[in-house]
Amino acid sequence: STIQKQRQELQLLIAELKDRDKELNDMVAVHQRELLAWEDDRQKRLTLAERCNLLNNELNKRNEIIKSLTKRLKFLESQQNDSRATFEYTQQKFKELSQKVTDATVHCQALEEKNRSLHCSVLELSTKTGQLQAREQELLTMLKLKDEVILETTDHITEFTSKFRKLESALRAAKTEEFSLNEEKQDLKLRLKELILETNKLKDDLCEKVKENNKQQEEIIHLRQENCCLRNELALIVEKAKRKDQLLQFAKSKQARTDTELSSLRQIYIKQQRDLQFLHVNLESSQELKQ
Fold first, then answer.
1. Are 83 and 209 in contact (CB under 8 A)?
2. How far is the C-alpha of 288 from the C-alpha of 11, rounded, in Å?
3. How far apart are CA 145 and CA 77, in angstroms?
4. Could you give the CA distance from residue 58 to residue 125 in angstroms, rounded to a whole number?
5. pLDDT tens digits, one per residue of 227-260
6. Superkingdom of this entry's organism (predicted)?
7. Of 45, 86, 170, 179, which one has the fewest beta carbons inside 10 Å?
8. Distance CA 150, CA 46 (A)
9. Of 35, 34, 33, 51, which is closest to residue 247 (Cα–Cα)?
10. Is the pTM of this model over 0.90?
């Protein structure tokens, strides 16, 4: 009966060993699958690390591009400020030249008015000269007719001759003044033409500066838009890198769980080996007792 009990116990132990062996085989298969999954995770982690390095390099390149674009933007802003200062200086100079042209026009009109008045005075002197010449002829005829009053008429003639000479000298002075005024008028006209040409030239320069300023403003707007796009792209890259870091942390935690589970399975396997050795020893001792 003892041997039968021991046989039953041995059969039960053998069945239990078979179950344990089956469980161990299942656990080994699961362990193999986990090892394959761990290898896949390791390969994925390596590829992720490599991609992370590539993204870091690309991020550094983008940072350099952003720095260069920032420097260029600052340079263009300084150039725009210079252009604005030049534009303001040109406007000020244009206002001064316009004021000068206005003053020259007013002065030219005053000179023309003076020239008209002098011309009128010259005409009056010419009429007076004609009248005096007529009076002189009349006096000459009177001298021929009246010999008695020759002395008085001679005095009158000398007086009128002196007056006539004075009028002639005044006429010459008026003519010389008119000539000088005409020359001054011609000079002022030439100066006015030069000022008009310079004003037109300044207007053309002002238009060119305005066009250049508009072009620079368009380029600055384009660079700002490009900078915003690059910043958005950089934010997306950083967000992707953060997500990859999170996935890497998840993979690390999963690897840690796998390692702990594997160590626990190893401990269970060692314990089962010990139990199996103990059962083998019991089996051998029972066989010896049976013999």
1. yes
2. 17
3. 100
4. 97
5. 888 888 888 888 877 877 777 777 677 777 777 7
6. Eukaryota
7. 179
8. 142
9. 51
10. no
